[in-house]
């Protein structure tokens, strides 16, 4: 039944869209499906989100914030003695979250992977948040004379992000089932740690 003149909040629409996307999958879900769940006309939704692509991006943006950025922020806010170990924990958490959702929330992860290829601005903003947080951790290590770098912390953070992309970028998700994936990360981190550790004076 269509509800006339129904006021919908952005949260209500995104909640319904996320529920519908999980039910039908990102490829088969339509704006009409979301409207049916809310009991409104699809025209009502178009007044909030002019296209399916824009709605998908909004759902993905919220999902990335709640599912990825919020848990990572908790690590940044921890008070620890070793900024280098905290940086490692941060990257491992990023990897853990991406692997977890690829396995346990495949529809939302697929939509995220699709949006990664379709919406550069959204993904750039998401990656920018991660780079900013990693830069904060690196800066703490530099200030404590525990991390050595001859470049700006943001440049170094982006380099580390790119170096570890195989373990957290959705384009590499098919490789995450490899039995050697953890050992390969340990090998990479060994090299990174050697390069980042400040020499003992």
Give a structural overview.
- This protein has 201 residues and is mostly helical.
- It contains 9 helices and no strands.
- α1 crosses α2 and α4 runs parallel beside α7 (120-143).
- The longest helix has 25 residues, at 52-76.
- The radius of gyration is 20 Å and the shape is elongated.
- It starts with 9 loop residues before the first helix and ends in a 5-residue tail after the last helix.
- The model has no long low-confidence stretch (mean pLDDT 90).
SSE string, helices as H and strands as E: HHHHHHHHH
Structural class: mainly alpha
Unreliable segments (pLDDT under 50, ≥5 consecutive)?
A: none
Helix content: over 70%
- Count of strand segments: 0
Total discrete domains = 2
Radius of gyration: 20 Å
Q: Could you please say which CATH topology of the largest domain applies here?
A: Tetracycline Repressor, domain 2
How are the elements arranged and paired?
Elements (H helix, E strand, L loop, with lengths): L9 H15 L6 H8 L3 H7 L3 H25 L6 H22 L1 H13 L1 H24 L9 H11 L17 H16 L5
Helix pairs in contact: 1-2, 1-4, 1-6, 2-3, 4-5, 4-6, 4-7, 5-6, 5-7, 7-8
In short:
This protein is an all-alpha fold.
Write a concise keyword list for the protein shown above:
2 domains; mainly alpha; Arc Repressor Mutant, subunit A; Tetracycline Repressor, domain 2; 9 helices; elongated; 201 residues; single chain
């Amino acid at each position: 039944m269509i509800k006339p003149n129904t006021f919908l909040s952005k949260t209500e629409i995104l909640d319904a869209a996320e529920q519908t996307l999980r039910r039908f999958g990102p490829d088969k879900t339509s704006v009409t499906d979301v409207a049916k769940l809310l009991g409104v006309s699809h025209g009502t939704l178009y007044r909030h989100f002019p296209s399916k692509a824009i709605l998908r991006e909004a759902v993905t943006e919220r999902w990335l914030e709640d599912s990825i950025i919020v848990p990572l922020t908790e690590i940044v806010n921890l008070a620890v003695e070793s900024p280098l170990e905290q940086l490692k924990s941060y990257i491992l958490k990023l990897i853990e979250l991406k692997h977890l959702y690829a396995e346990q929330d495949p529809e939302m992860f697929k939509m995220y992977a699709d949006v990664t290829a379709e919406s550069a601005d959204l993904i750039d903003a998401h990656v920018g948040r991660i780079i900013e947080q990693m830069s904060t951790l690196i800066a703490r290590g530099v200030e404590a004379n525990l991390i050595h770098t001859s470049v700006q912390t943001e440049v170094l953070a982006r380099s580390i992000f790119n170096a570890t992309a195989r373990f957290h970028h959705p384009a590499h998700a098919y490789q995450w089932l490899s039995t050697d994936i953890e050992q390969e990360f340990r090998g990479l981190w060994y090299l990174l740690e050697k390069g980042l550790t400040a020499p003992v004076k």
